[in-house]
Amino acid sequence: MGALILQQTINALTVGSIYALIALGYTMVYGVLRLINFAHSELFTAGAFIGLALAGALGIAGHPTGGLLVGLITFVLVGLVGVSVEIVAYRPLRGTSRLAPMLSALGMAVVIQNAVMLIGGRRPMIYPSFLPSGAIDVFGAVVSYKQITIFLVAVVLMVGLELFVNRTNLGVRIRAVAENAETASLVGINPNMAISLIFFIGPGLGAVAGILYSSFYGVATFTMGFVIGMKAFTAAILGGIGSIPGAVLGGFLLGAIETFGTAWMPVLTGGVIGTEYRDIFAFSVLVLILLFRPAGLLGEHVSEETRVYKSDF
Amino acid sequence: MRVWPGALAMALLPVLALIAGQFLPAYPLRILDMILLYAILGLGLNIIVGYAGLLDLGYVAFYAIGAYSWALLASGQFDIHLPFALVLLIGASLAGLAGILLGIPVLRLRGDYLAIVTLGFGEIIRVLMNNLDGVTNGPQGIARIDEAHLFGWTLSTPHDFLYLLVAMLVVVFLFVWRIQESALGTALSAVREDQDAARGCGIDTTRVKLVAFAFSAFVGGGCGVVFAAMQRFVSPESFTFWESLIIVLVIVIGGLGNPFGALLGATLLILIPELLRAYADYRLLLYGMALVIIILARPRGIISRPFGPTWLMRRLGGGKC
Question: What CATH number belongs to B4-317?
Fold first, then answer.
């Protein structure tokens, strides 16, 4: 029993790390532009495919040290794609309505997904693992090195991001623009620079998550981003969208809810609610949390009186 | 102000659709039917998104409730065979009821949170339909649904549905337009522009939002019944998140809060993929690009909000604008 719970906790941490990495991209973009970046989930997929292509080109498939190199190059490449998507499809729409950029993002999602399909193919691709193989036994639970690596990579990236945002000059600029773009520009910060930076880091993290995800499951398909992206977005909302620690908390929490919910619901309900309701747990929890804490768990609660934006769309 | 010129101009569109229907072969006719169906869905969603300013990303849930009403109440599934007119009413009412039940807890939320909760609701409905095998037959869906009969008239060919859809479009169009011009419409636009100020004017914001939500869901449910009768097959496949997004795109591209916009948006969104059919694999890529380009060119929609039916009536009737 104890081993089972431990095993599920480890599985939850693995899935949670991936959700958290993707959720960071959603939350950072939302924090600054109040935009749901639908293209983000497709950049996650693009990351996995670019990683695959690089591994083939450099001839380092399935090697952990090579994996580090592939991860870095993919981060930069997808980051640059993210920056260009923002410049082409979102920047011209800034200051119109809030719906327009969101739907433009949707159009970009369709474009990127189909570009990945045309280049990478329709069929699921077998994915070489960039993660070390093998497993250890911890109190009866099997912990693979893959899982440990995924967790560690995610933690390193998240701590790095936290330090970057809170301790560096560029991070201060990002936070200033997130707080209020106009005021930030009054003190000499270029909001476009900060926004480009966000569109570099967010998709970069998403791309690394794509490589980790595909390495873990050993497969990559061009449609895989949609569901994962939706869950990661749920995680971002759960933690309080716009908040970086919130996205991390939400990611891990969603991983836990899904893993434990899927495992225990059939037992608790005597088989009436089976594992096929996996996707419902996430959404039901989300709906419930929002009803009691409309701004998410760590989200800043903006009172209606002080809100600057009166009309939502 | 004279009423006739404007009314005649607006009547031109349904008449044109009916005339075109006489000459079109079955395949283009089916596309025309789909355009009309999405136009009606767009008009319905416009009440909540365009007039009340609340983003609903789970509109397909109401559509699905309507479709499954017809599939369950007029097929061999439970061996119930109710008449079409009755199910149309039941399906639309069930969807409206679902809208109210969802709306009561949810309408306290604002903006994106509301969007995401409605998205969750849409997914929950779809997963339920996928998994309640005993009722909905799961992913296989329900086939061999009854042919629809409306007061002795059999609806089976795309041509029959053209008449039904044109009639529905006219009714829903007038309904939506009158809502827009009514006290409720004024209240809704006050809520959209500034909820706090609206409350200050004595508008019960939760109640008007709830009414808008219910009307919107009602129209969605009605469309679902017609869709199921047209396809004579339903499965959860038809009610994905993507479908909700298409309906949002219909009204945003056409023009948010403008009934003409929904018509134009539906035409474009259904026609573009058909025109791109020749490009096979590149079809969706080009479709995505077309969407981005249209939005970049006209962020407020192709026909923007002020140029609605009321404007047309005034313009052609010689009244002041």
Answer: 1.10.3470
